[in-house]
Amino acid sequence: MQLFLKKIYTVWCAIVFIGLFILVFPFFLIIIWVPAWHKHCFYINKIWATIALFFVGIKTEISGLENLNSKNQYVYCANHFSLLDIVSFGFSPNSVVYVGKSSLAKIPLFGFMFKKLHVTVNRKSIKDSYNSLQLALLKMGDERSLVMFPEGGIMSKSIPKMTRFKDGAFRAAITKQIPLVPVTLPDNWIILPDEKIPLINRKKMRMIFHQPISTEGLNMEDVPALKEKVFKVITDELNKYH
C-alpha cells in the first residue's frame, strides 16, 4: 500500500512540475529573445520552484541568506546528488547562470530554455569544458552569479559522500575575482533519488548557504587549496545530517 501511494505521489509531482513549467514557458521564450533580459529568468525560476513545491507539499528551509548580498556576484558550489538540486537554486538570492551536463538540452522545452539561458557542457571533452566555462563567464556579465556542481555531475556511488571536485568553479571565481559560496543540499537525494525510475519522497528540502570565501588577489595556483576548503565546508555540513 505504501509503495502504491508513493507511486501516486510521484505521478502527482510530475504533473505539477511539468504543468507549471508549460505555463511559465512562454515567459521564458520572451526573455530568451532579448539578451538584456536574461537576468530576469531568476524571477520565473523562483515562481516555478515556489509554487511547484507548495502544491506537492514539500516545505523548504533556506538558511544562510544573511551571509550574502543580493547585489553581489558569487560562484555557488554545491554538492550534487539529485536533479532537484537545479530547482533548489530558484531560491538563490540573485539571478544565476547554471553550468549543466549536455544531456539536459535534450529534455523537451526545458532543454531549449536551459541551453539558451544557461550553459551546457560535455564533461568528457576538455576542449568543450574550457569553452563552456568561457561562455558561462560571458553570460554572467557583471550581474549574474554562477552555479556549478564541482563534482562534475551526479557522480558519487556512495551518497551522501561527494566525489573529487573539478577545477572549473574555482577557476571561474578567481578569473572574476568574486567570492565562492559553498552550498549544502542535504535532503534532495532522498526526496528525488538519482534512479532510472525514481519514486519521490515527501520531505523538507533544506538548503544551506555558507559564508562566502574571498578569491581577491588569488591566482590559479590557489585552486587546489580552494577546492579543499570548499569540499571540507560542505562535507562537514553533510555529516551533521547523515
Automatic annotation (TrEMBL):
The keyword Transmembrane applies. This is Lysophospholipid acyltransferase family protein. Pathway: Lipid metabolism. GO terms for biological process: phosphatidic acid biosynthetic process. Coiled coil: none annotated. Residues 74-188 form the Phospholipid/glycerol acyltransferase domain. SUPFAM superfamilies: Glycerol-3-phosphate (1)-acyltransferase (SSF69593). One of its GO terms (molecular function) is 1-acylglycerol-3-phosphate O-acyltransferase activity. The chain crosses the membrane at residues 12-36. It comes from the Bacteria. Keywords: Acyltransferase, Membrane, Transferase, Transmembrane, Transmembrane helix. SMART domains: PlsC (SM00563).
